[in-house]
Each structure stands twice: as structure tokens, then as C-alpha cells.
């Protein structure tokens, strides 16, 4: 059992820089985005609760092989890029949090630099002044 509740997942997702929650499909699932791109979907009314995460394809295959019954193909999602993690499965809370972080990082890496958290636009250099020019 992971020891991670749906509320824990929500708090963790919303604790990530610039992450937003919305409900475009109705009351469930909760959708977590960065710059409009989805990195996680939380189905807390599922029995047992589960979170779907966008991960690199090689990680998807490895996790499904390592945790059958806990890490499932993404429910109604592209099975190559998405997994659905059963919160009451074989992964502990820290492992689920690490996967949420990885999903967030996976999506952030696809964003243009200007939309990434922490991006500071370069300050344009002032044009060089000529000798004797007023400031």
C-alpha cells in the first residue's frame, strides 16, 4: 500500500512550480497541467484511487514490467506515453511522488524555454554610446 491519498497527490501536484488543476472532463478526473500541457490525471473516485502520469516510453515499459497490477497502461490514454498508477499498490508514497515529479519534468522538457518554470528572459544590452553622446 502506498500510503498516498488522493489529497496527497493533489497537494504534491499543486506544489510543483506553475502547476494548475482543472476539471475539463467533469468532476473527475482532476487534471494537472504546466503551461497548458497535462502531466497527471487523478481519479480519486476510482476504486482504488489512481493517478495517470505522462512518462518517457522506456520508463513506461520498465514500470509496467516491474510493478504488474500497480502500474497499468494509461487508462483511455496513449499507452506508449502514459501509465496509470494504483495508489494502493506496491509503490510507496515516495516512489509515487517521484513518478509525479518525473511526469512533470517530462512535460516541462517539451515546453519552449520561455514557458519553463524559472526561465528569466535575457536582458537586452543597451546600445553602445558614442563619445560625447548625451545619456
Structural overview:
By secondary structure, the protein is α+β, with helices and mostly antiparallel strands. It has a single domain (6-115), classed as Aspartate Aminotransferase, domain 1 (Alpha-Beta Complex). The protein is built from 3 helices and 6 strands. The chain has a 6-stranded antiparallel sheet, with helices on one face. Strand 2 (30-34) and strand 3 form a beta hairpin. The longest helix is centred in the last third of the chain and has 16 residues, at 93-108.
Taken together, the total number of domains comes to: 1
Please report the total strand number as a whole number: 6
Report on the biggest sheet: 6 strands, antiparallel
Give the overall silhouette. elongated
Q: Architecture in CATH?
A: Alpha-Beta Complex
Q: Which class best fits the helix and strand makeup?
A: alpha+beta
CATH topology: Aspartate Aminotransferase, domain 1
Helix coverage percent: 25-40%
Can you list the strand order of the major beta sheet?
A: 1-2-3-4-6-5
Query: How much of the residues is beta strand, in percent?
Result: 15-25%
The end-to-end span amounts to 68 Å
Low-confidence stretches: none
Lay out the secondary structure.
Blueprint lengths: L5 H9 L4 E4 L7 E5 L2 E7 L6 E5 L2 H10 L4 E3 L8 E5 L6 H16 L27
Antiparallel strand pairs: 1-2, 2-3, 3-4, 4-6, 5-6
Give a short synopsis of this structure:
With 135 residues, the chain is of the alpha+beta class. The chain contains 3 helices and 6 strands.
